[in-house]
């Protein structure tokens, strides 16, 4: 993590400090995810991906992924990158883990995904 003075030096790229902090946290989470072997099977998508890759003026607060690997390894894999990320943030942020590894079913009752939510509140 970087110190507050260095972080604030990037403020001119954002509307306010809150947006800067959210962008920073999202980038830290993406870094943590990228060094995990599960990341080889994740496709980053959604508003945050469009914002980061194409500079679209659409700031999203969540990270959306499609998993392309084996379903058996998915739940263990999610925990393997969420837990280190939480440890990295806990010193400075309040972390709430909710809806962790909940099966998402389509209209016919077939599991179509796994949902995990992690809420980070800054200092």
TrEMBL record:
Pfam families in the cross-refs: AbiEii
InterPro entries tied to this protein: AbiEii (IPR014942)
Descriptive protein name: Protein containing DUF1814
Origin species: mine drainage metagenome
């Amino acid at each position: 993590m970087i110190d507050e003075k260095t972080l604030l030096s990037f403020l001119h790229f954002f509307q306010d400090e809150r947006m800067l902090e959210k962008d920073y946290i999202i980038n830290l989470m993406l870094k943590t995810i990228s060094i995990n072997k599960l990341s080889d099977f994740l496709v980053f998508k959604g508003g945050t991906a469009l914002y980061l890759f194409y500079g679209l003026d659409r700031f999203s607060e969540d990270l959306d992924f499609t998993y392309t690997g084996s379903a058996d390894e998915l739940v263990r894999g999610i925990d393997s990158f969420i837990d280190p990320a939480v440890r990295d943030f806990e010193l400075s942020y309040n972390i709430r883990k909710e809806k962790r590894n909940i099966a998402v079913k389509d209209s016919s009752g077939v599991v179509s995904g796994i949902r995990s939510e992690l809420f980070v509140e800054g200092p």
